[in-house]
Each structure stands twice: as structure tokens, then as C-alpha cells.
Amino acid sequence: MFKNYILIAWRNLIKRKVFTAINILGLAIGFGSSILIYLFLTYHFSFDNFHENGDRIYRVVTEEQRDYVDYESSVPPAFAKVFREDYNYAEKVAKVVSWENYQLNVGEGTNGKSFKEDAVFAEPDFFNIMTLPLLDNLSNRSLEEPNTAYISESMAYKMYGDGNPLGKTFLFDNKETIEVIGVLKNAPKTSVVPEEIFISYFTLEKFNDFNAEETWGGISSDLQCFALLHPNQNIAQIEEVLTELPKRHRPDSKNKHVYKLQHLSDIHFNPNYGGINPAVLWIFGVIGLFLIAVACINFINISTAQAFYRSKEIGIRKVLGSFKQHLFWQFLSETFVISLFAIGLGVLLAVLFLPSFNNLFELNLSMNSLLSYRFFIFIFVVLAAVSFLSGSYPGILMSRIVPVLALKGKLKHNDTGGSATRKVLVVTQFAISITLIAATLIISNQIDYAVNSDLGFDKESIVMVSIPNELEKVQINSLKDQFAQIPGVIKVSACLSSPGGSINNWGTSIKYHTRPDFEEFSIQVKLADANYLNTFDIPLVAGRNFFENNSDSIAEVVVNEKLGQKLGVSTPEELVGKQITANGGYVKATIVGVVKDFHDNDFTEEISPIIIANQTRWFDEIAIKTNGQNTRHVLDQIGEYWSSAFQGYIYEPRFLDDRVAEQYETEQRYLSLSKVFSALAILIGCLGLYGLILFFVGQRTKEIGIRKVLGSNIANILVLFTADFFRLILIAGLVATPIAWYFMEQWLQGYTYRTQIHWWFFALAILAIMIITLITISYQTLKVATTNPVKSLRTE
């Protein structure tokens, strides 16, 4: 019986090649998109699921409670030792410090090579917490020793080729020689610590004494603390006990620390601590369902539209003894055959477009994931669901046809049913497309607003170059003078970090003037020379710029307007001349000027209260303002001077506007994907519309001929076919607008500085769908409208 269903289904599909092709292509695009989304979702849901004791691994994080709550994925450097020695909650506790983009030199002379990699300084117990197995190692050696390292298999090949890496050395950051004492099995990239170089934690003090020393005085975002808890621990009870630590070690701090245990499975999905927002994954999952739903709607619409022309076939089947269930399964079989072809084509489309998808998200998704049993379950479920949902309604509809009316030719289009349902489905299809287009317009408008708004400082044509070594003030001034002499260079400034798009942030508390206590809020410290304000075009609103001095102490600072607002000071002039104490007393200085507020964070966060001061030994970058002309030559000239000052280091200039734009890199990627999926939804919808109009034009050929004989022109006939669709689009717009408005309003709530949702976003989306619909149906309509009416009237 089943074989007979399939055979008849195949014959019917071959008979109607155009409609079959439209259905297969629409479903294939939906399937292909859904497969890519499936790979994307499975990638994210696979994070850190390979650790043997994953159910007992926690990261200790900090809630900094000031005038607002700030979430830090770190703890003070002293925490790990106290948690390990003073409490009995964990089997193992380990700190790691992650550094990004540091230089490695391997080999010497012509055989030597230099490149930049991320690296981790790890305590030995980190490898007893995480499942990162050693493949080979030097006996009697461990990461207890300074200047030793484990590296992954792939990193060993990159550094040393096919040779044995054990016992070999590399130079890290042009400062310390590190010996390789172990090779780790390649770990999945879906790890909370994805780096491939693990250097002994005891080496860290040679680079950075803050993370190495046992201090409670601050938090570095580079540091993370992991713990393997004993079984059956009460997490809430542990967190309650940990509330005593700030009271004991930070009794005078206004910055209240609350230490929390974050389970390993939560790290990748908690946006408070730098993880991805789970809502994004849900949105992509829903988009995948939308695309398949749109393709299913196409199939249902075309199938129900054809019911009238298959009525005689159904009538004969019923007369010959077919029951309703037989006809139902027959149409379901046709749907299954189409879905089977479509899913094969969908896999092929996914394979073809996977490289582009990987480039968009900077991922390395592989089609090998499609060989897993989970994928086959996914495909089976999708195939079954699509076949049933797409085929069941047309099957039920056509199995209800009265055979007497069908065989006598007295069956009317209304007798086959489906007209009202078809309109509802078309409205649904249009509503999905309008929602996606409107959402894309709103997201694009917000990102454009964030990237191109006046940030309060100049970011155009400013080149940022690093200072990899600590230099004396006279050396920095000499290098700045060399840069300033380059034709095309306008201004030069040395600093800890740029005003916005910063890679270095220094937060601390302050005590203002005669007030006895530190303030409840935190400030950001920007260390810079006296050219900073001029180079970045940050205007003063009161007072003057600070003067540079040759001592290590900070005597004068410039602050921003926001600091005055937080302090409750009525005018910027009132701040000038007042004393402030910051960084636990390290900074004691006079406020000599107030600058206009500038955006030091992205638009999701408020402008911070800021102080700008001079402290040469903390400078990490030099900012070079150019005239924007002959840029390549200017960069080469900068590189020559820079390489001469920092021999052996890799020269990597970065434009500040690119760095600022990178703050919205994730949103830009999601916007790109939103555009792609919106286009796919429209394409699938257009295929369905083309199929419907092909059917309706064929159905009304004689009518068109009669209308032309009676004097109708081409415009009248075009209006005849488009008017109904335009009415459906307007209804879809009324449905889609409040839905899109609500969800995009929720999305915009994540931005402190945001645009407004305007009515014309939705009007433009509706207009776009109308134009696309008009283009889609015009070809076939005009083809028939321009046909000789004599031929139309002869059509049976």
C-alpha cells in the first residue's frame, strides 16, 4: 500500500513540474537555513560539556554593589588562597589569568618566527579541575616551576612543526624564556578557557605583580578562580558564609563585594558575566521555525489552490472505492516525497553556505556535526513535522470533495474549500516578513546611531600603537617627537587608553574634598599626557588642563561633568580647586579642570565619572592623529620609528574608529544574519506567491480575454490581480506592527542611549513587501494580459 502511495505521488509530482519545483525549492531554503541554525545552536549548547566533573565545577564571581550592581567574572587575587585553606568546601581551587594577543618568539635567526597568541597563567590544580589531559610531558616537572608551560597539540605543531616540543623554549612578550614541559590533547574550542598555551602561574609576578600578590585591594578582569567542590554541597550556604570575607579583609571599602558561585554550565549563557544572552539563541531558533513555517504555508496554499483541478481524480478514486483515509495518506505521501527531495537539497545548500556563515560569526562549524545521531533525530523530526503539517490540511480538504459534483463538472471553487484558510496563511506569511524587515531596520538604525553619533571625542583618523615596554618619560617624549615630524601627522599623545573603545579600564573609588568617607560610586581613571585632550578633541568646560610633572605622584587631575553630577555639585566651576583622593590614597590631587562628558563605554552603559591624570609609567599606548591623507605611507613611517624603539616586537597599528565599532561587533553580526534571514523569508514567500499567481492566472485566462475585449487595459488587469494581495499585506502589517514594536522595544531597553521606534519603519517594511509582491506577480500577469484575447477565449 505504501509503495503504491509513493508511486502515485511521484507521478502526480512529475505531472505538475513547476509547482513541484516551487515547493521543493521553498522547503529546501527553509531546511538549509534551519540546518545552519541547528549547527549554530548545537555549537553554543556544547560549551564545557566535556569535563568529567562538570557538575561540580564552579567559577567564583563578584557582585560589586555600589550605587548600582556591577558584575565581575573575577575575584581579588587573595581569594583563592583563603577559599582553599580556610574552608573545606572544595577538593581543588585554582586561579588563572588570561592575556590576549601577546607576542611569542620561537627559534632564532632565519629559522625563527614571531606571532601573537592568547595565553593563560594557570595554577597546577587547574588541570585537576578541568578535563585537559596530558598526552606527553617531561617526568618530574610540573607547573609549580616558574617559566614552564603546557601547550596543546595544535600549538606544538604551529610552534615546532613535526619535532618533539618537550624541553624546547620560546620567548614570551620578548621578556621571559618559557620551557615547554607538557603537551595537552586538543580541547574543544567550546571551552570557558579556549587558550592553547598554559604558563606557570608563578611566572606571572615577573610581568604583573598585582595578580601575583595576595591582595584584596582590587579586581582584575583577567583573573578567574575555579573550584571543584565536594559532592552534594549547598551553594546558597557557601555563598552566605563567603559574605564574611569582605567584612574581614575590606572593612573600610564603600565598594561592597558579594562573592557568588557560578556553575560551569552557566558561564557561557550569563550576559552579566560576559556570556551570550540566551534570548539570542531562542530568537534564532524561532527564526528557523519561521522559515520552515513560511515554506509550509507555500505548500499548503499551492496544494489547496490546485484542489479544484484534481477534483475529477478524487471523484474517480472515491467511486472506485477509496476512503477518506486513503486519500489523506495519498496526499501526505506526496508531501513526504517533496520534503525528502527538499531536505536533501537543503543539506547541499547548508554545505555550500557554511563557509560564509562561519566567516560571519568567526566560527569554525563543521559539517562533521551532521554525522551525529542528534542531527539525524533533528532531521527525522523536521521531516515528519513538515510532511504532516504541510500535507495534512490539503489531504483533509481534498478528501472531502463530493464525487458526484466532481464527475459532473459542477464543482465550484468554493466547494473545494481552503479560500479563507489560504488568505489567513498568506497574511501570516506577509506578517513574518514584515516583522523581520522592521526588526532589521530598527536594529540597523540603533547600531548606526551608536557608531556614528558624537561620542564626545574625535575618533576619526587616529592611529593607536602599543607601548610594549615600560619607557621613561624622556623616551616616550622622544618617540612622540619622531611621530610628530611625520608629514600627515597632526597631533600625538601617550596614554593608558583611549577615551572610548578602551582595552584598559581602571576603576576605583574616590574621596571628595572635605567629605570624610569614600563615595558610594566608582570612577574610571584615564592616565595620559597633557596632549590627550587636544589630540582627542575633548573640550574643557571649566578650568584648565593639567600640567605634567617629573615625579611619580599625581598632583593635578581633570574630571568630567558626570563626576560633578554624581557628587551633587551644581556647576562644573564649583569642582575646580577641590581635592580628591583615589585608589585607596595613592592619588591625592587637585581638580584643575572639567571636560565635557564623552562616551567611555558603549551605548548599553552610562557615561562613567572620570578623572584624567598624568602618570607616565602606566602608559600603554600612543595616539597619533593624522590628516587622513596618504594613510599607507604615514602608517609605514610610524612603523619605522616604532620598530626602531621596540626592536623584536610586532608592529600592529589600530584605528580608533575601528576599535569603537568593535564594541558593536556582536550586534553587527546579528544584524547581518537578520538581513540574510529576512531576505530568505521574502524569497520563500515570493516563490509561493509566484506559484499562486501562476495558478490564478491560468484559472482566469478566459476572464482576462473577455475583459480585454470589453476594453480593459493592462493596468486594469494588473490591479485586478494585485488588489487582493495588497489588502492582505495591509492586514499583515496591522498584525505585524504591534508584535515587532513590542519585541524591538524590549531589545532597545538594553541600551542606555537609544533611538526611538518610528512609525515609518513599519510603513517602509509594508511598502517593501508591496513592491516585492508587485514585482513577483507582474511578470506572469503581464504575460497573460498582453496575450491576444482570441487565444485566451479559446483556452479550456
TrEMBL record:
<feature type="transmembrane region" description="Helical">
    <location>
        <begin position="759"/>
        <end position="779"/>
    </location>
</feature>
<feature type="transmembrane region" description="Helical">
    <location>
        <begin position="424"/>
        <end position="443"/>
    </location>
</feature>
<feature type="transmembrane region" description="Helical">
    <location>
        <begin position="718"/>
        <end position="744"/>
    </location>
</feature>
<dbReference type="InterPro" id="IPR003838">
    <property type="entry name" value="ABC3_permease_C"/>
</dbReference>
<feature type="domain" description="ABC3 transporter permease C-terminal">
    <location>
        <begin position="286"/>
        <end position="402"/>
    </location>
</feature>
<keyword id="KW-0812">Transmembrane</keyword>
<dbReference type="InterPro" id="IPR050250">
    <property type="entry name" value="Macrolide_Exporter_MacB"/>
</dbReference>
<dbReference type="Pfam" id="PF12704">
    <property type="entry name" value="MacB_PCD"/>
</dbReference>
<keyword id="KW-1133">Transmembrane helix</keyword>
<keyword id="KW-0472">Membrane</keyword>
<feature type="domain" description="ABC3 transporter permease C-terminal">
    <location>
        <begin position="676"/>
        <end position="789"/>
    </location>
</feature>
<keyword id="KW-1003">Cell membrane</keyword>
<feature type="domain" description="MacB-like periplasmic core">
    <location>
        <begin position="431"/>
        <end position="626"/>
    </location>
</feature>
<protein>
    <submittedName>
        <fullName>ABC transporter permease</fullName>
    </submittedName>
</protein>
<feature type="transmembrane region" description="Helical">
    <location>
        <begin position="279"/>
        <end position="302"/>
    </location>
</feature>
<feature type="transmembrane region" description="Helical">
    <location>
        <begin position="676"/>
        <end position="697"/>
    </location>
</feature>
<dbReference type="InterPro" id="IPR025857">
    <property type="entry name" value="MacB_PCD"/>
</dbReference>
<feature type="domain" description="MacB-like periplasmic core">
    <location>
        <begin position="20"/>
        <end position="244"/>
    </location>
</feature>
<feature type="transmembrane region" description="Helical">
    <location>
        <begin position="375"/>
        <end position="403"/>
    </location>
</feature>
<dbReference type="Pfam" id="PF02687">
    <property type="entry name" value="FtsX"/>
</dbReference>
<feature type="transmembrane region" description="Helical">
    <location>
        <begin position="327"/>
        <end position="355"/>
    </location>
</feature>
<feature type="transmembrane region" description="Helical">
    <location>
        <begin position="21"/>
        <end position="41"/>
    </location>
</feature>
